[in-house]
Amino acid sequence: METVVLVHGLWVHGIAMELMRRRVARCGYRALAYSYPSMRLTLAENAERLQRYCRDIAAPRLHFVGHSLGGLIILRMLERAPGLPPGRAVLLGSPVAGSLAARRLARLPGGRSALGRTAPEWHEAATLRASTGREIGVIAGRMGVGIGRIVAPDLPAPSDGVVSVAETRLQAARDHIVLDVNHFGMLLARSVARQVCTFLREGAFLR
Fold first, then answer.
1. Using CA atoms, how far apart are residues 88 and 61, in angstroms rounded to an integer?
2. Residue 193: which of 62, 74, 23 has the closest Cα?
3. Which end of the chain has fewer CB atoms within 10 angstroms, the N or the C?
């Protein structure tokens, strides 16, 4: 079967992707929720770890879905992992153009520790060219309710409450869509899962 690897974001475990995983599986894919130490390892180290995980997956097509930091890890891994089965990738609220909320949090007492060892590389996210040979779709949210508004009250609108829509813009993306969801709620929304499956199947979002 075509396989989809779902990669979670900062501070959580792969179980956070479980509802999304089930919905993707109902679309006819073998869906795997991948877990990684989002605080303990750097972005590059987690990308290497994901690459090793994917090497053991036997599938004619291998797709990826990444939420927030998980999308950055997928992009970094794809840049450096030739030879994986072909497929598509969908990024959900991933700050590919940097994160104002993360920069503001890093300035607060204990903020750098809260962001873990990936934080320094978040600021380099804009250099990701994603020259992967894969079609990439980006889903952003415009329901601006989230912890990002607490640490960064001036987070540009529209945003999902953590990441602004502008911060999700990836030049290499095949398609980009903005939905009425917030940053963490996009993992629970049926509309997001439907768009994920549509892009994995067709290479474009449903309009």
1. 9
2. 23
3. C
Q: What is the DSSP string of 123-175?
A: TTGGG----SSSEEEEEEE----STHHHH-TTPPSSB-SSSBTGGG--TT-SE
Do 32 and 70 meet the contact criterion of CB atoms below 8 Å apart? no
Residue holding tokens 């090793």? 52
What are the strands of the beta sheet with 88-92, ordered from one edge? Answer: 30-34, 3-7, 62-67, 88-92, 135-141, 175-179
Give me the tens of pLDDT residue by residue for the chain, a chain 207 residues long: 999 999 999 989 999 999 999 999 999 999 999 999 998 999 999 999 999 999 999 999 999 999 999 999 999 999 888 789 999 999 999 999 989 999 898 889 988 888 888 766 665 554 555 556 799 999 999 999 998 989 999 999 999 999 999 999 999 999 999 999 999 999 999 999 999 999 999 999 999
Contact (CB, 8 A) for 118 and 69: yes
Tokens of 55: 């090497």
* pTM summary value: 0.94
- Residue 194 structure tokens: 């439907």
Tell me how far apart the alpha carbons of residues 63 and 160 are, in angstroms, rounded to a whole number: 24
Reported as type and span, the H/E element at residue 37 is none
Give the contacts of 92 (CB within 8 A, at least 6 positions apart).
65, 66, 67, 68, 71, 139, 186, 187, 192, 196
